[in-house]
Prior knowledge:
The complex is a heterodimer of chains A (230) and B (85). By secondary structure, chain A is an alpha/beta fold. Chain A has a single domain (2-229), classed as Class I glutamine amidotransferase (GATase) domain (Rossmann fold, 3-Layer(aba) Sandwich). Chain A is built from five helices and eleven strands, in the order βαββαβαββββαβββα. In chain A, the strands form two sheets. A nine-stranded mixed sheet of chain A has the order 2-1-3-4-11-10-9-6-7, sandwiched between helices. In chain A, α1 links the parallel β1 and β2 (28-33). The radius of gyration of chain A is 16 Å and the shape is globular. A three-stranded antiparallel sheet of chain B has the order 2-1-3, covered by helices on one side. Chain B starts with a strand and ends with a strand. Classes of the chains: A alpha/beta (230), B alpha+beta (85). Chain A binds chain B through residues 57-58, 61, 65, 93-94, 99-101, 103-108, 146, 148-150, 182, and chain B through 12, 16-17, 19-20, 23, 68-69, 71, 73-74.
Amino acid sequence: MKFGIVKFPGSNSDEDAFHAVTDVLGQEAVWLWHKDHDLRGADVIILPGGFSYGDYLRAGAIARFSPIMREVVAHADRGGLVIGICNGFQIACEAGLLPGALLRNRSLQFVSEQSRVRVENTETRFTNQYAPGQLLRLPIAHGDGRYTADDATLDRLEGNGQVLFRYVNASGVVDPASDPNGSMRGIAGIVNDRGNVLGLMPHPERAAEAVVGSADGVALFESVLASVSV
Amino acid sequence: MSRYRVAVHIVPRRGILDPQGKAVADALHSLGFDGVRDVRVGRHLVIDADASEPAAAERAVRDMCAKLLANPVTEDFEIANVEHA
């Protein structure tokens, strides 16, 4: 399977994503420059973490107008897979690929830590290699990660099983007090209603090998591989 | 065509947690400004643009807000002023 990893000016998790899909998962990957106009045959697009365009105006607001994003949106409209990680999640929301928005952390502080995340739905193309309710350790590193949407949208996401990951405490329970950024209903990651666009604030690509503290992110990419080979 | 200067306020929508606004409100309270009930911190943009008339300049900036300058999920905007630049 060929992954396409977009480089925006200010991306900083692009190399981690490339390493995870090539060196760890043994898949092919190509770089996609933000000014490119084609996806070079990639099956899965990764919008990586970072601070594209300096987070000017709002995180992700400028990146969504990059030439490559027109192709990424068209790819998603065709049913192609897109994974937005951290800044990529923010960009996907700004581009209208996912509902809601990511606002300044409740604490007003940049949070860089190993988060605890619970898998909420394993019947998706991004989570089928996890166990229901599995607890993961995935790093987070962001200043604007507070997932926000209106109640109707949140109810719809929950009703459709589109909430894939939630922040939980050490006991595996959603707990506003230990939520790292103040996200509504503890939401850390969602999928669109069609099931082909994933957005999440934690970094699965930075949790791909035990030597870096966690390999809990690997199954996310393995889920993608499994969903396509089925 | 004339050149107009359009000022627009963009603020977090009421009801959406604005931690910056809350921090500022807390600081004002600690300074003794007890009457402060709510603070929201937003952005103020001043845009110089060519247009046929003031109303057209305002329309253009409203369109800019809808497409880029404000996030329709979380922010409200209002045109604060339109004047000849």
